[in-house]
């Protein structure tokens, strides 16, 4: 097996930059949303054959990793909310000294419990006997249907075995729901530990791009520049988050050009689209520069136009702004620039309405970023409005922190963007939300802490009556802060509420 070595955790230690308690909180939050009569099933990513008996380097399924931190293939995580004998179960490979001498150490069922916080663990070969019993009495099954056809067939076979026992009093599941509807919105909001890993991936990526710029010169092949990127990634314990794109001249206009095998010529621009993945968290950066070190007059004009569009988009990458606002700002700048350069004809209004700019700019300006390069999470909400930027969310090209947070005495943070109607505060110590609220100082008398360090958790609505019925919500930009004691330990949590 050609697998990447991944650091393992011992009991009480953090796992790959994420504390063991954070994996516990993630599982608890998912089980709360699923309900006590549900069951969630997540298989690990399978090994992928590269050719004959060699495999691609193993990379764990992002959802499976997010909930368990377990790095091995041939495993299944089962969450059974409310089960008295243990809610978190793992099916995995048993220890095998002979195979481990070839492929590396395995955790085994004992390690799944001791190192990864599972309540119970079983050999993967026993899954056919045990899993039908876990399905019995559960009304809803959360699972990623359609990802793994072979596992889909197994799951329906287990459900049919339960259905066959209905006459004997068995209660089979009657709802089958997409797990991503719950889990992917949870993954969209990043914790402080996740943000640290993502920033480190971004730092490695920046260093790799600088090394590639030094390697690029007239007469050098694209693969030599790619080699400089890969060297910078690996020397910092990172891997490419995706296949690097290193394209010179007209090849830079092929959006997914990956051949990277042509010689760089004088006068060409070189586009590099490459990002590091550090401990499963990805970065995504694209830069374009002249091979000979000097822009021509025409190249400079286009470069300045793209830079202005980037600045316009970043100016709107802040809490309370919709995700699409940055794209629309960039499109307006690019379209106006293309008109002034004579590459488009007509007025700005008509060019935007007809989308004639798409001949040059046919995609969106950014995307969510995290465990996947194009990370999960909806861009539109259920009422079709675009998703608002909130502290803890990260998109490609917008890794700067937001200054809209306050910290409670227990170390947790609260973020409330202007225009939002809900608070995502949760106690970091005991995994509970606020029990009540009292008014504190106005915003002008408070110190603001960067939200880039914030840990995003569950959402909690604050009732307008919690403010003061006698105090009208009239002043548009006035804010009040509330102290909400934790329901279990009483630790004060701080929250800022916008007054509409």
Task: Describe the model.
The chain is globular. The chain has a six-stranded mixed beta sheet, with helices on both faces. Strands 9-12-13 form a three-stranded antiparallel beta sheet. The chain has a three-stranded antiparallel beta sheet with strand order 10-11-14, covered by helices on one side. The protein contains twelve helices and 19 strands. It is of the alpha+beta class. The longest helix has 24 residues, at 192-215. The protein starts with 19 loop residues before the first helix and ends with a strand. Helix content is 30%, strand content 16%. The protein has helices spanning 20-34, 62-68, 97-103, 108-114, 127-135, 149-163, 180-188, 192-215, 222-234, 297-314, 323-340, 348-354, and strands spanning 38-43, 49-51, 54-55, 76-79, 88-92, 120-123, 140-143, 175-178, 239-240, 245-248, 269-274, 276-278, 281-282, 285-290, 405-407, 413-415, 438-442, 479-485, 492-498. The protein folds into three domains: 20-187, 3-Layer(aba) Sandwich (Creatine Amidinohydrolase, Chain A, domain 1), CATH 3.40.350.10; 192-294, Creatinase/methionine aminopeptidase superfamily (Creatine Amidinohydrolase, Alpha-Beta Complex); 405-498, no CATH class. Helix 5 packs across helix 6. Strand 12 (276-278) and strand 13 form a beta hairpin. Residues 9-15 and 398-500 have low confidence and may be disordered.
Main attributes of the structure:
19 strands, Creatine Amidinohydrolase, 3-stranded antiparallel sheet, single chain, 3 domains, Creatine Amidinohydrolase, Chain A, domain 1
